[in-house]
Amino acid sequence: MNYDAFFLGQLDGLRREGRYRVFADLERARGAFPKAVFHGPDGVKDVTVWCSNDYLGMGQHPKVLSAMHAALDSAGAGAGGTRNISGTSHHHVLLERELADLHHKESALLFTSGYVSNWATLGTLAAGMPNCIVISDEGNHASMIEGVRHSRVEKRIFAHNDPRDLERCLADLDPDRPKIVMFESVYSMDGDIAPIAELCDVADKYGAMTYLDEVHAVGMYGPRGGGIAEREGLSHRLTVIEGTLAKAYGVLGGYIAASEALCDYVRSFSSGFIFTTALPPALAAGACAAVSHLKSSSEERARHQDRVARLRAGLDRLRIPHLDNPSHIVPVMVRDPVRCKEISDRLMDECGVYIQPINYPTVPRGAERLRITPSPLHSDDDIDHLLASLDAIWTALDAPREAAVDARHPLAQLCPVAGPLRMDPADVGVDSCPWVGERASEAGLQHAAPASDETASA
Ligand code: PLP
Fold this sequence. Notes:
With 458 residues, the protein is α/β, with parallel strands linked by helices. It has helices at residues 3-17, 62-75, 83-87, 90-102, 114-128, 142-151, 163-171, 196-205, 227-231, 260-269, 271-274, 281-296, 299-318, 337-351, 380-397, 410-414, 425-428, 437-442, 454-457, and strands spanning 26-28, 35-40, 43-49, 107-111, 133-137, 154-158, 179-184, 209-213, 240-244, 254-258, 323-324, 330-333, 353-354, 357-358, 369-372, 405-406. The chain is built from 19 helices and 16 strands.
């Protein structure tokens, strides 16, 4: 086989579809977020970043930076080993305590990323409990899907955010069989929010464990930043709460918070925890400072919501089509990969605005979008400039103007061609789509490109 010819052929296919990914070469400017320097083909220019998952700007917060500087100066660069073999620093221990307290749980366990925490924890729990079955929301993230796939246990998929369909999946199962019901709180592409209490009611009725991914909510919701579960007084109802330190907390790493026994079990049996070097102590110290700060300060959360509301009102005024949802994620719907890239390029080239286009497999085909993430640090002028830029480009392209669309039933609304729950395997090729990834794997597409929420994790 001519290996490179194969790879190049596959890449050409992506280019033909308009979804070949070009990474923006950025230099974030410390203290100036959301401003950054863009290194483009025509040289260097200043841009405003509108698609970062440093949701609250904590990646540049003085407390976080000074904690990281201090830890770097006192403890050095790397952890020096796995957690078991010399790599546990006091900064890891303090951070785990902080996270357990954040979620009102007995214990917490750190991983090198949110992806790894989902993959390792779900893989370990599902594989370890005899005859376990997993019941998964069809919108779940690739890291959760991959963890369960790795465990090779049976899995059922329930319709997105639908407690009644969850019940359908659970009702005929042996009551004694171990069961994990897994879902997210804020879904990162549509920004819709799970009915956590109702899903927990159903899980409790059938004796299932509950696993909640709060990656897009920790730091941002709840009186102390404990996520949607904390905001709704439900933390105690989740068996496991999983989160990241890389988005609202601005650093890197992932974690679970749960009972002492469960965390100790994962710590002791999970290869994704055991066989990898621990996070650098300085990262743990920075994340700890961010978590601790956001436990006591709600200023960032309030300002964040204010920025989101202002942007949405402007989009409504201009009738730039976007999904209406109850979170901080503002998806502007373009529904065409080539046009989505064109708008993104024009925003960058003509307006100094950076928003990465989001294509399949991060979202279904026909649901291409600009995923906008306002932060507390975007000024009124930044918002006005973004709106004026979008308005001008919409006019230049004669793009459709529409009222906001309700995000609550995204599958039904965004896949008019494919139909809500149908994916054509021939169309999918070797990819799996994380957004409808559960359906793709159901169709026997095990040969998954490790699709992920690119805007969040790439
Ligand atoms: N879970 C969800 C829902 C995500 O969207 C992501 C990444 O974007 C992850 C987990 C992985 O988190 P991390 O970026 O910390 O690896």
